[in-house]
């Protein structure tokens, strides 16, 4: 079982941990040391046990705040998932009917006749130009 020296509040502590947990222990010690440094800057020197207690309480307060935020986020996620499921289970809306006017065949015939006359006139004009 490896032994790691961690530094908190300017003091060294030898702590044992499981193999491979050294980085996690160092990270946790840094969090505790950061809180101890805040206390030291605000209050000055204090007994080791009081400094560790106060730093631990400050970290616990932060952890509780994060836990509250996590629970709130999880509750919002549950609500959003419920709303999504509700929307997915609703029947699709009826398709909107759009009616398009049908062009009567007589109009089509008349337009074709007009196009033929226009082409004939264009041919006559081309002949006269030439």
TrEMBL record:
Pfam families associated with the record: ZapA
InterPro entries for this protein: Cell_div_ZapA-like (IPR007838), Cell_div_ZapA-like_sf (IPR036192), Cell_div_ZapA_N (IPR042233)
One Gene Ontology term from the biological process aspect of the record: cell division
Coiled coil: 63-90
Entry keyword set: Cell cycle, Cell division, Coiled coil
Protein name: Cell division protein ZapA
């Amino acid at each position: 079982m490896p032994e790691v020296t961690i530094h908190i509040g300017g003091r060294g502590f030898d702590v044992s941990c499981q193999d491979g947990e050294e980085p996690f222990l160092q990270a946790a010690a840094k969090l505790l040391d950061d809180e101890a440094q805040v206390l030291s800057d605000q209050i000055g020197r204090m007994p080791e046990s009081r400094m560790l207690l106060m730093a631990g309480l400050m970290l616990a307060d932060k952890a509780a705040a994060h836990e509250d935020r996590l629970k709130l986020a999880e509750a919002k996620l549950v609500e959003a998932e419920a709303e999504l499921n509700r929307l997915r289970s609703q029947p699709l809306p009826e398709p909107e009917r759009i009616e398009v006017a049908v062009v009567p065949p007589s109009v089509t015939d008349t337009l074709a006749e007009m196009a033929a006359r226009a082409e004939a006139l264009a041919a006559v004009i081309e002949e006269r130009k030439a």
